[in-house]
Amino acid sequence: MSNMGEIGWVSDKEGGYRYQTTHPQTKRSWPQMPELLHELWQELTKFSLQPEACLINYYDAKARMGLHQDSDEQNLQAPIMSISLGDKARFRLGGLKRQDPTRTFILSSGDIVILEPPLRMAYHGIDRIVPGSSRLLHEGGRFNLTMRRITSGQ
Ligand SMILES: O=C(O)CCC(=O)C(=O)O
Ligand SMILES: [Mn+2]
C-alpha cells in the first residue's frame, strides 16, 4: 500500500509491478525508514548491507496473500525481514518449489519473520488474518512491514 526507504515496490496498470525510488502518482521520494528499523535489521539479520525498501501492507478482515516467492530483488543473498503488527495471521511457508509441502504458523503482533538463504526463495503467503485478535490497531486488521535489500552494491 505504501513504502519507506530509498526504493519502493509499486504497481499500476501501465507499468505492472516494479521497484522505483518515487511514488508513481506524487513523483516524490518515499519517507525514510525510521532508524529503529535499521537497528532491528542489523541486530536480527547481521547482514552486511542495509535494507533499501520497506513495503507497508495493510490486511483487512478479508485480505490474504497467495503463495509466492520474493524474486524481484537483484540481491538474492540478502535476507527479507517482515514485521507483523495488529491482528494475528496464518502464515504459510513452503519450500523452493511451488509443489513442495507447506507448514503454517500463526504470526502475532510483534512477530518477525526472516527469510534468508537457503530459504530466501521459499514460497510463502498469508492464508488469512484472525479479525479481532489484537487491540493494537483501533480500526482492526494487520499491518505488515517487509524490509528488503534490493541492490547488490554498497
Ligand atoms: O504479510 C506477510 O507476513 C507476508 C508479506 C509478503 O510476503 C510480501 O509482502 O511479499
Ligand atoms: Mn513475500
Keywords:
154 residues, mainly beta, Jelly Rolls, 5-stranded antiparallel beta sheet, 4-stranded antiparallel beta sheet, 1 helix, 7% helix, globular, binds 2-oxoglutaric acid, binds manganese (II) ion
What is the topological layout?
Blueprint: E1 2-5, E2 8-10, E3 18-20, H1 35-45, E4 53-59, E5 65-68, E6 80-86, E7 88-93, E8 103-107, E9 112-115, E10 124-130, E11 142-148
Antiparallel strand pairs: 1-4, 2-3, 4-11, 5-10, 6-9, 6-11, 7-8, 7-10
Manganese (II) ion binds at residues 68, 70, 124.
Secondary-structure element order, N to C: EEEHEEEEEEEE
Distance between the termini: 27 Å
Order of strands across the widest beta sheet?
Answer: 1-4-11-6-9
CATH class, named Mainly Beta
What name is given to the CATH topology? Jelly Rolls
- Percent of sequence in beta strands: 35-45%
The named CATH superfamily: Alpha-ketoglutarate-dependent dioxygenase AlkB-like
> Would you identify the regions where 5 or more consecutive residues have pLDDT less than 50?
none
Q: Hetero groups bound?
A: 2-oxoglutaric acid, manganese (II) ion
| Computed Rg | 15 Å
Quick overview:
By secondary structure, the protein is mostly beta strands.
Can you walk me through this structure?
- The strands form 3 sheets. A 5-stranded antiparallel sheet has the order 1-4-11-6-9, with helices on one face. It has a 4-stranded antiparallel sheet with strand order 5-10-7-8, with no helix packed on it.
- The chain has one helix at residues 35-45; strands at 2-5, 8-10, 18-20, 53-59, 65-68, 80-86, 88-93, 103-107, 112-115, 124-130, 142-148.
- The model has no long low-confidence stretch (mean pLDDT 97).
- It has a single domain (34-148), classed as Alpha-ketoglutarate-dependent dioxygenase AlkB-like (Jelly Rolls, Sandwich).
- Strand 2 and strand 3 (18-20) form a beta hairpin.
- It contains 1 helix and 11 strands; from the N terminus they run βββαββββββββ.
- It is mostly beta strands.
- The structure holds 2-oxoglutaric acid and manganese (II) ion.
- Residues 68, 70, 124 line the site of manganese (II) ion.
